[in-house]
Amino acid sequence: MADIKIPTSFNIDLEFESADIVKRFLAWLIDFAIRVAYFLVMLSVLTSFRMDMDTNVVIYIFLVFLPIMFYFPVTEIAMQGSTPGKKLLHIRVVSMMGNAPSISQHLIRWIFRLIETPIYFMVVIPVLIPLVSIVRTPYNQRLGDLIAGTIVISTKRKGSIEETIFRDLSHSDYKPHFPQIMKLSDRDMNKVKELLDRALMAKDDELAARVAYRVKDVLHIDSEMSHTHFLETVLNDYNYYTTRN
Question: Do 36 and 102 fall within a single domain?
Answer without folding.
Answer: yes
